């Protein structure tokens, strides 16, 4: 009997998590990514190269002309340790689709 309750409890938890994930997915499809989701999306792509040291992102989406359409994007950046180098990047992510439109490495102006 206790085993049946434990299995039922696990099933209930699984269904609740699945339903929650579904509704979050629906919210993203309807309203787009949040700024934090955009940062996570980009950083997840770069993590295999080395640890992410710090991130920043503009909290409000900005208008961005993309060829023949106007889209809203998040602009942000991050630092990453790759070997002995600390690299800086800026990125642009489409708020609605989650597409990473651009990632640019920023040149460090090291003092000589």
Automatic annotation (TrEMBL):
Signal peptide: 1-21
The keyword Signal is annotated on this UniProt entry: yes
Keyword terms: Signal
Name this polypeptide is given: PepSY domain-containing protein
């Amino acid at each position: 009997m206790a085993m049946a309750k434990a299995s039922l409890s696990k099933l209930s938890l699984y269904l609740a998590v699945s339903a929650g994930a579904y509704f979050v997915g629906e919210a993203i499809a309807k309203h787009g990514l949040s700024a934090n989701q955009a940062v996570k999306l980009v950083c997840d792509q770069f993590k295999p190269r080395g640890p992410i040291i710090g991130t920043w992102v503009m909290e409000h989406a900005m208008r961005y002309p993309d060829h023949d359409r106007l889209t809203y994007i998040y602009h942000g950046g991050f630092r990453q340790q790759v070997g002995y180098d600390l690299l800086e990047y800026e990125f642009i992510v489409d708020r609605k689709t989650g597409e990473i439109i651009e990632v640019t490495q920023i040149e460090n102006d090291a003092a000589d």
